[in-house]
Amino acid sequence: MSSPAQFRSPESVRDSSRTATLHLTGSREGFARARDFTHRTLDDWSLDHCTDDALTVVTELAANAVLHALPDRPADDADVRLRLTLRRSHLVCAVTDPSDEPPVYPHTADSLLEHGRGLHIVEALSEHWGWTRRSPVGKTVWAMLPTRFHT
Predict the structure, then answer these.
(1) Contact, 104 vs 71, CB < 8 A?
(2) I need a surface site. Which of 31, 68, 73, 74 has the fewest CB within 10 A?
């Protein structure tokens, strides 16, 4: 099992034994770091059975934040945070960005589109998802993944 100290770096924080936060950049390395952080956190929480879905959800939410919420900022200047929270029967994956614009959920079902499927994927993998406005600015887009085995 991983030690909580492994998660401590300038861009990551273990807020508690049930919450972990990572500052994201929009670079390829930033997305790889988010996936690695998610993988190690879930391993620490003994949630290996949730890893594939959580990695996909985290990747989609982070990419949406960087691509849509911060289109005019350099990738390494992105003020985006990933927060993983373990609840009794759910893992909450949340990405916060400084944009006040709600997430764009395309209403088309065209599976051949190059972009626009991210929130459809998040919806398919999560029990619940949504977004919350932040004060004074910004928003958090979140998804709740079940942590219990389904029989």
Answers:
(1) no
(2) 74
C-alpha neighbours within 13 Å on the C-beta side of residue 102: 6
pLDDT tens by residue, 82-125? 999 999 899 999 999 988 888 877 666 555 555 567 888 999 99
Q: How far apart are the C-alpha atoms of 63 and 20, rounded to whole Å?
A: 19
Going from the C-alpha of 147 to that of each of 59, 85, 89, 127, the distances in angstroms are 19, 11, 5, 10
The residue among 93, 73, 76, 74 whose CA lies nearest residue 19 is 93
Q: Is the pTM of this model over 0.85?
A: no
Structure tokens at 102: 């709600």
Higher pLDDT among residues 136 and 129, named by residue? 129
The predicted-structure confidence for 35-57, as pLDDT tens digits, reads as follows: 999 999 999 999 999 999 999 99
The rounded distance, in Å, linking the Cα atoms of 51 and 39 is 6
The token pair at 25 is: 């950049």
How many residues appear in the chain? 151
